[in-house]
Write a structure and sequence with these properties.
This protein is α+β, with helices and mostly antiparallel strands and 107 residues long. The protein has three helices and seven strands; from the N terminus they run αββαβββββα. Bound molecules: zinc ion. The site of zinc ion has 7 residues, from loops.
Amino acid sequence: MYFNILFSIFMIVESIVLLKTGRLGYELYGSFYIADYKYIISLLFFLFGIYSGYQAYKSYKKQKINGKYINYSKCPNCEETYNYVDLNNGICPKCNIKTVDIDEFYK
Ligand SMILES: [Zn+2]
């Protein structure tokens, strides 16, 4: 989740750097001069950055319930553990009832 946001920022920064300099990568470990393709490649980077940022935002919104961020949840009936983001509105696919935050479950 945080990785996705970092990745998104990195892609957008890289696309701007590429657009300004025509170079991809950093001096430190070698860079490629791709001025001929800089517009198309920086556009792709930019769009990819926006897309992964949007994905991160979407999963964040989906996992944040009543001001609390839920990673894993457990079904009170079958006691199955789920990645909250994989569930549809936090509903257990087997029992069709609402799952609870794993921290709440073990309280
Ligand atoms: Zn269940």
